[in-house]
Specification:
Layout: H1 3-12, E1 17-22, H2 32-39, E2 48-51, E3 57-62, E4 67-72, H3 78-89, E5 93-98, H4 104-116, E6 121-125, H5 146-157, E7 160-161, E8 164-165, E9 175-180, H6 191-203, E10 208-213, H7 217-229, E11 236-240, H8 248-256, H9 262-269, H10 275-295, E12 300-304, H11 310-319
Parallel strand pairs: 1-2, 1-12, 2-5, 5-6, 6-9, 9-10, 10-11, 11-12
Antiparallel strand pairs: 3-4, 7-8
Length: 320
């Protein structure tokens, strides 16, 4: 079933769905960990599960003569894992597809694979820059922006391929989600520019938005209001992540360009490094966020898990 249909139905019935995302396992780990992560939360009837896509990196090799580099992929298998989860559990899978490191033909091949595997949902993202790059550099035969990726997917839904239309063509029927940034994307010129770019993705064919994580619900409510004023009418799904250690106070704002409320930071620091207490603080904060969002009638809540779903199950037990 398409995610947009699930979200629209939830809105009509004044219900809030539970969704989450997983990382592909490290190369060689197999499916066991992924299946275990899903099974931890099956009792809460997840509406969908997202599978992230990790772009290539470079590995340095040094010898006495020279230094060389070669491409490595640490977490491959996004499409296959999505298909395996969907087949095993009957839960709609939403693989991510990104611009970074992929040509238009790579993307087209992946979309054709998804279509053959009966995967109808995907999340279209620009993707991150490589860790050694100062800014995002697209594949020379790829896309620089997510809006162009959405346009390619929408074209395939119409039976249009890179090399042109195909006679008597089977049309894919992908439901496309995109990312939104309540606290503004790091590359945006302004909050207004960021909303404008989001509107372009919707106009190109995206049907719903999933937000970057946030820890202050008012930030989300203000973002939704700005989107509505800009003519963005599609569902906007809030994204939450429970803080689990003190290191998150520093790494999350830097990595995701977000702000942590002073009250949360103060409470974590007051735990004086006690990991159990810090994790409890993070869980309670997410529980209160989720309860408030549910009371405000959001169609779904999306949880960022890093494939550790025990804490997500603890939140869902209190909310769903």
């Amino acid at each position: 079933m398409k995610v947009i249909d699930l979200l629209n139905k939830a809105t009509e019935e004044k219900n809030t769905l539970f969704g989450f995302e997983l990382l592909p396992p490290l190369k060689g780990e197999g499916r066991r960990g992924v299946f275990h992560a899903v099974e931890n939360v099956l009792d809460f009837n997840p509406a969908y599960v997202n599978i992230t896509f990790h772009r290539e990196g470079l590995k340095e090799s040094i010898n006495s003569v020279s230094t060389s580099y070669h491409i490595v992929r640490k977490r491959p298998g996004t499409v296959g894992i999505a298909a395996a989860i969907q087949r095993k559990y009957g839960v709609p899978a939403v693989p991510h597809i990104i611009c970074g490191g992929l040509s238009k033909y790579d993307i087209e091949d992946a979309l054709i694979d998804m279509d053959f595997l009966d995967i109808d949902n995907l999340l279209a993202l620009r993707g991150d820059k490589r860790h050694y790059e100062t800014y995002f550099i697209p594949h020379q035969e790829g896309h620089a922006h997510a809006v162009d990726l959405v346009k390619q997917i929408s074209a395939m839904n119409r039976g249009e391929f890179i090399d042109g239309e195909v006679d008597e063509c089977h049309h894919s029927k992908f439901c496309v989600g995109v990312a939104g940034y309540p606290e503004v994307h790091e590359t945006a010129l302004s909050a207004e520019d960021d909303i404008k770019r989001l509107k372009e993705k919707i106009d190109a064919g995206a049907e719903y938005v999933v937000t970057q994580m946030f820890f202050d619900n008012q930030v989300y409510y203000d973002f939704v209001e700005r989107c509505r004023k800009a003519g963005i009418t599609v569902p906007i799904v809030p994204g939450l992540k429970p803080l689990v250690n003190e290191r998150h106070l520093y790494t999350l704002p830097k990595t995701f360009s977000i702000k942590l409320p002073h009250a949360l930071s103060h409470e974590v620091i007051s735990c004086r490094g006690d990991r159990k207490k810090i994790k409890e603080v993070g869980l309670n904060w997410s529980i209160q966020q989720a309860k408030d969002l549910k009371e405000h009638g959001v169609p779904a809540i999306h949880f960022y898990t890093m494939s550790r779903t025990e804490n997500i199950a603890a939140i869902a037990r209190q909310v769903f």
